[in-house]
Specification:
The complex is a heterodimer. Chain A is mainly alpha-helical. Chain A is built from 19 helices and four strands. In chain A, helix 4 runs antiparallel to helix 18 and helix 14 runs antiparallel to helix 16 (423-453). Classes of the chains: A mainly alpha, B alpha+beta.
Amino acid sequence: MSTISIHDTNHDNHGHDAHGHHHETFLSKYVFSMDHKMIAKQFLITGIIMAVIAMILSILFRIQLAWPDKSFPLLETFLGHWAEGGRIKPDFYLSLVTIHGTIMVFFVLTAGLSGTFSNLLIPLQIGARDMASPFLNMLSYWFFFVACVIMMSSFFVQTGPASAGWTIYPPLSAVPKAIPGSELGMTLWLTSMVLFVASSLMGGINYVSTILNMRTKGMDLWKMPLTIWAFFLTAILGILSFPVLVAGVVLLIFDRSVGTSFYLSDLVFGTDILPNEGGSPILWQHLFWFLGHPEVYIVIMPAMGISSEIISVNSRKPIFGYHAMIYSLIGITILSFIVWGHHMFVTGMNPWLGGVFMITTLIIAVPSAVKTFNWLATLWRGNIRFTPAMLFAIGMVSFFISGGLTGIWLGNASLDINLHDTYFVVAHFHLVMGSAAIFGMLAGVYHWFPRMYGRQMDAKLGFLHFWITFICAYLVFFPLHFLGLDGVPRRYYAFTEFEFMHKWITVNVLVTWAAIIASLAQVAFLFNFFYSIFKGKKSEQNPWQANTLEWTAPVERIHGNWPGEIPSVYRWPYDYSKPGSEEDFIPQTTPFSQTMSSNLPHDFEGDAEAEEIQRQWEAQNKSNSTTAE
Amino acid sequence: MSLKRIISNKTMAALAVLMTAFTSTTTFAQEAAASGMAKPVDMNPIYKTTTFYVLLFLLLCLFIAIVGKALKVYELTRETEGKVSAINWNKINAILFALFLVVGLYGVYWEFTVHGNMILPEAASEHGKRIDQMFMVTLILTTIVFVLTHIVLFAFAYIYKFDAKRKAYYYPHNNTLERIWTIIPAFVLTILVLMGFLTWRSIFYKIEDPNNKPISIEVTSSQFQWDIRYPGADGVVGKKNYKLVSSINNIGVDFNDKNSLDDQIADEIVIPVNKPVRFTLHSKDVIHSFYLPHFRVQLNTVPGMATYFEFTPTITTTEMKAKTNDPNFNYILLCAKICGTNHYNMQRTVRVVSEQEYKEWVAQQETYLTDDLRKAFNLPIPAATTPAVAADTAKTNQIALNN
């Protein structure tokens, strides 16, 4: 009813008024909100909290790696029997890395990133009053919230949280006696993941249908900002790949609880022969990575879209190669479905498949390279304003290059033989999808904070936050490559047992200190974020002089986004510093008739009538100027 | 901004400065008083308390807050004096990017030369040499791209920093450029793919040379150990069945298969140099990964299926000791796939020896088949072994081999 009427642009005022009669209570406004902006904020704050938790977990295991022989009594105070004598136990160490990975990949960089910015920006940037289904949107957040709670509750289980790595390969994850974390902790992990996927599907379906059906007048697909393109393709990826994970998870639940043998066969623990027969652990890996690889693009593509937008706005230049940027996103989307096998080169998969997956994997580097070069070309001869958002966007490009290049090593099956499951992999993905995606997310937070809260975040604290984080992230992840090249496997509890690893303990100390400093720098962000919500400087209507639609909506962030009619769109979103225009930006809502002096032939997309009008105007203007001379 | 606010800011800043000055001097005075008496205060236990670090961090926050306030006061006073913004943050950030580029490039150089020297020695296997070649090609190509793109990125950030007098150059697209930077990466990647593909095939699709048949060795992983089985005189590792696992037959060797009878047990992997070896990998419980970094060998061991890796070692342990200048050097086998509590300590030594040494060593290894197992499989117990067991081990082995 109201959802339909408010999206009807013709009966706009009526629809909006009708909606305004709803009595808003605290519950309906802040808790079970159906407003996309509020849901975005819910996703963001939940995402931030989860990120802080994951960061603390990472500091705990970094401490273990740097000082494997030292005792920290404080750890026992907080962790009890998981850190008896002030030293983290091996099982708990594995739980820490598992939950750190799970939280970061799924809860922060999928839900926290897509959930926040797709929800916030899709309606605002395409000119819609809200999502296609606000109710589904609300459900999506609450499923996510419950998933978070269940995941965290595994820390309060006697046997500890899941500890088979975030990829939870069976049989380690399937057989409770294989590791304590595979008892109740793993059940909670799987339950949480099913709810999470449900949430992400509801979100994704909503994003796609909103983008396809609810764009404002004039907003055709080729006038959408790159952020929207990125969210759109991300949502499609999620819709197509997440169900496969659920299928895999459900089969694993059956194996664990019902006694089926989808993934299990020929198992003996000690002398205890298990009855399972006929399954294959490789099956899980195929199902998992069929999601898992698109997943890393689900993580990075929104960050790419956000960075593209921010780099363009703050360079005061159109994004270079708008079409190429979109085609490369589409290319990545399609290719990301046929590269999953590169995670499995040495898992016993048929080597013939290894060859195939190597080819597809290295092809995907091409669209990624195109994107990088386009970002660089956008900076070229720009007029760059270093807002905190811009700093983070540039940092994102840097991380994407550094981490992306090592992907060429790992995507090569021959090199992967020796690098698989070593610290080289850890360094690679923490740069390319960890740091890069986090930086994209932070860039988005700084950039769209005024749109979320009507206030500005403090820029100077933002600078401090950026520089410490940027430098420390490199200090953490760059040296880890060399551990991998020395053949140090990942997920090792301590480097004490192997002679050749002793030399890396000092490097671990450096890395741990860098990680600690980086995490302390996040206090600057957290303070800035929460302080600015209440006490930040009031934002102007369009603080960054940007072209996109969201900056035409009132700062008060009303329900329904725009009072009165939804603005129409006439041009692409990247008319920055257009020659002939007085201002260095022309919002999408400005018709060409108001910018006769800056129109280019290309702008009319072959509309003969408009071209004729422009020609006449130019001829007239020319004669005017010549007579004036 | 109103003058009142500036004053309040200034007073706040001044107060904060005074406060810190006061607290630090008083603590200083107390310390001096304490240490003046007899011996200096032992700070070590204090450095170990969490409170110390929390206070340190809070102090740092306070310091940052004071600097922030001071900057704000400065900027506001400049503003009230009617001057343009006091601090050019665009310039500062641009300079920081330039600095980051220079220091970062030096850091990369330092990493390559220092940590780069701590990595694995040259490959000790035939296919490993090809992998190392690929490695070098990829390293050189990616390093060039890495350095160049970063120079461009940070140099652009520095050169094109904001300047109110300048207008950015409207340059929305150039299809030629797009084509260039699509085709060049595609071309380079094609070369890498081809090289990688050929290398990959040469590793996993081996044509067996009938005159140089590989030695078969079977490795079974379990939490948290490796069980190594040599084929014995017949050169064939016998069948096994997980259902036969018991306390006396821990990997479930099936002794109904004749090939199993002479199989030998070993507690380290010893292989002859320049002879192909073919590892058959199994896992009893969870997935492990058979990782021999020095030979560029890795393959997961998967319960329920066998995996195979064949390679030819080219450098003996003794030679490698000389090459790495490390008398303690040893090739190792480790587990690279998360497998449980003791994942971090699943090791076995690997020795590469001359053919002669190998033959001597292998002759000394005991058979899997023990008398207990003979009973269990209803196999005849050779009479000779029972009395002579302690007398001559070499002889026992001989008999076992003959079986």
